[in-house]
Design brief:
With 705 residues, the chain is an alpha/beta fold. The protein is built from 29 helices and 18 strands. It has a six-stranded parallel beta sheet, with helices on both faces. The chain has a six-stranded parallel beta sheet with strand order 11-16-15-12-14-13. A two-stranded parallel ribbon has the order 4-5. The two termini are 28 Å apart.
Length: 705
């Protein structure tokens, strides 16, 4: 097998003679040229220059803006943090604005700390003034105000605490409930961030009524004990805003408001900003509609697209000079995202250091892709071109990183995996199937029993406790058989246990991929669908994608024993890597989803899975949108929902490309889950080639099996 696909300067299906897109060079003019010495504020810019801060024309315009609303469209890598810090300093040093009347809202504690430090280093801002500026996250700011108002509720900051409470509520409500605590908590969070309380949850269907009853019990439990979660903090402040006196005090205190990453605001955050700015309208928001990739978390692209409708007198400043990427990398990103219809028109110019043009690979399938990526990284590091920590591997979904993660583990390459703490085979969805395979080899592998108990619709913890208690009295070759004597189970459940044991016995002689297909056909797909309706409804395509990924992984092995041994070896290596993580010097490859990478930058980026069905994801390629998409876009036509989904996928591709500073490698597997897959239409569009002009999979209405 060829594990070294040829690197090309254009994607597959693009003529070799095609000219790669390239961003134009930015003008070299800075404040030294643009702010004359006779200007009243020249002293401020001269002092910035002495500190090594040379602002370009649009940055100067944003910094100088006085009263009234302003939308700062900040393209990727265009220095928005510098502008926010410099504008804060300008208000204090030039306009004489009291530092304590400035509120700067960010989305992460890290960003809040960074902006505060930057402000402290700005000319004209003494330490006392820097401390007086309120730079906080939405949650930190809201909690500070609520505490000052006398709220003494304890905050459940840890997800584990919420999870434990929800688990307890589920047991009390109905032990036979099959909802997963994490799914219920995610649904509750999404509902609250639309500004709704649990009492307003719908209850038209039996499932909706059941979910509402559980969530109301969860909220009652918290209320009785004076507990809040993070979402409650924002919701409580939003409700307090209806108190005119309370709101007036806030508006008087914070007369100058700046909001970072405005495209990521959800409904509640958006309303809080409007309330705070209503009296003075000195609102400056910074964001990039081309980087709106969190709509699943309630982010609203309309926040930026409709800003000047809400504030007709607003000034719009576009930061369009990119200091991060090579002009050809930036050119590709711009050529991708310009095909979105719903966006603010902007064309980024390059001022970053020269790197190399993007390169493209066309591996046969994800396994070959993973081998090539890891080999290429190894060569680059050995040649001392780069260190591991300067490299990021970006992927669309957890499943699409499975092969490359395995290669990193097998080759002992240090890496940091974001958003997951387990290998693919140990993930919640996959583990029960793997445990059935493990039990087919060793029916007394006790740690695998819970994986087999769950899909029998038996409570895992209680079921395993019963089996272990019975084992002390009588050891059985197949310990699962004890469940047939458990008086808590109905006769039909006891029969199902016997049938499952027969199936487990038969699996050992099957090919691994066929064994997984059989388990899915006989019970697992039905269990996933019925086991937690919320999971299946909200994440059906991701669930099916992961199960297909498991079949693809298993197809490489001839026997169950080979496959299970391989998976167990990976689990062991991963556990060892996690133990050593704290002892490493931080020199590790960054492996993360594109969503996680937003706001970050890396010298070397490998974007894997740049193929149709992966990015754009299959969910965005359907003629009819999934029900969860329609529900989240109430009032929109099906066509509008489909178009919006595809545009968000295109924004993801833009974010992936613009993370790279010096080198960008884009890999498009020709086959995915055994089916042909063309290079991502987003790459072809960037070269002026329409999707319809190549032989590629068309939009599908569903999944064939």
């Amino acid at each position: 097998m060829n594990t070294q696909p040829t690197l090309t300067s254009v994607p597959a299906h693009v003529p070799a003679s095609a000219k790669p897109p390239k961003a134009s060079n930015a003008p070299a003019l800075t404040s030294r040229d643009l702010v004359k010495d006779h200007a009243k504020d020249a002293f401020f810019f001269r002092e910035l220059e002495r500190h090594g801060i040379l602002l370009n024309a649009p940055q100067i315009k944003a910094v100088r803006h006085g009263e009234g609303p302003m939308l700062i469209l900040a393209g990727a890598g265009c220095g928005k943090t510098t502008v926010l810090a410099a504008r804060t300093a300008y208000l204090i040093a030039v306009r004489g604005v009291p530092a304590s009347s400035i509120l700067l809202v960010t989305f992460t504690s890290k960003a809040a700390r960074e902006i505060k430090e930057r402000i402290g280093r700005m000319p004209g801002v003494n330490p006392a003034a820097a401390r007086s500026v309120e730079a906080r996250t939405f949650h930190s700011f809201a909690l500070m105000l609520l505490r000052r108002s006398g709220c003494k509720e304890q905050i459940m900051g840890e997800f584990n605490a919420q999870h434990t409470i929800m688990k307890m509520v589920l047991r009390r409500q109905d032990p036979s409930q099959t909802y997963q605590p994490e799914t219920l908590l995610a649904a509750l969070s999404a509902w609250k961030m639309q500004g709704q309380g649990v009492e307003e949850l719908p209850e038209k269907t039996a499932d909706e009524a059941s979910v509402k009853r559980i969530l109301e019990a969860y909220e009652s439990w918290k209320q009785e004990r004076h507990l809040w979660d993070f979402d409650d903090i924002l919701l409580q402040l939003r409700r307090r805003m209806d108190d005119r006196l309370f709101l007036k005090r806030l508006q008087n205190r914070y007369a100058w408001l700046m909001v970072d990453e405005f495209q990521d605001t959800n409904t509640v955050q958006y309303e809080l900003v409007q309330y705070l700015a209503a009296a003075h309208r000195n609102l400056s928001v910074v964001g990039d509609d081309d980087q709106t990739i969190y709509t699943f978390n309630g982010a609203r692209q309309e926040s930026i697209l409709e800003f000047d409708k809400l504030y007709p007198e607003s000034k719009i400043v576009t930061l369009d000079i990119n200091y991060r990427s090579d002009s050809r990398i930036l050119g590709l990103g711009s050529a991708i995202v310009r095909h979105n219809r719903f966006r603010r028109d902007k064309v980024l110019k390059a001022a970053g250091p020269a790197g190399q043009m993007p390169f493209y690979a066309l591996p046969s399938h994800p396994e070959e892709e993973a081998l090539w990526v890891v080999n290429h990284i190894t060569q680059q590091v050995q040649a001392r071109n780069v260190t591991y920590k300067d490299i990021a591997i970006l992927h669309r979904t957890a499943g699409s990183s499975r092969a490359v993660l395995e290669q990193l583990l097998l080759r002992d390459i240090p890496f940091v995996q974001y958003g997951s703490s387990s290998v693919f085979y140990d993930q919640t969805l996959i583990k029960p199937l793997m445990d059935h395979l493990r039990l087919s080899l060793n029916p007394r592998r006790m740690e695998s029993l819970p994986g087999a108990i769950g899909p029998l619709y038996v409570p895992k913890e209680e079921g395993q406790a019963f089996i272990l208690a019975q084992e002390k009295e009588t050891r059985k070759k197949y310990p699962l058989i004890h469940l047939t004597r458990w008086n808590r189970l109905q006769p039909f459940q006891q029969t199902a246990v016997k049938e499952r044991i027969k199936l487990i016995k038969s699996l050992q002689k099957m090919k691994p991929a066929y064994a997984i297909q059989e388990m899915r056909r006989l019970f697992y797909d039905k269990y996933i669908q019925a086991g937690d309706p919320l999971v299946y409804t909200q994440y059906k395509e991701m669930v099916l994608d992961s199960l297909e990924e498991l079949e693809s992984a298993a197809a490489r092995f001839d026997t169950i024993e080979q496959f299970v041994t391989y998976a167990d070896e990976l689990s062991l290596r991963h556990a060892q890597m996690e133990l050593l993580k704290d002892e490493s010097d931080g020199d590790a490859v960054q492996l993360m989803t594109i969503h996680r990478a937003k706001g970050l930058e890396f010298p070397y980026v490998y974007w894997i899975g740049a193929s149709e069905g992966i990015l754009p994801h299959s969910t965005a390629l359907k003629e009819k949108p999934p029900e969860e998409m329609k529900a989240a876009a109430a009032g929109k036509t099906e066509q509008n929902v489909c178009d919006a989904a595809l545009e968000e996928e295109r924004r993801l591709a833009y974010v992936a490309v613009t993370r790279a500073k010096e080198r960008l490698y884009i890999s498009s597997p020709a086959y995915y889950h055994g089916k042909p897959s063309a290079p991502s239409r987003f790459l072809l569009e960037a070269y002026g080639i329409k999707k319809s002009s190549i032989d590629a999979p068309s939009r599908k209405t569903g999944r064939s099996r």
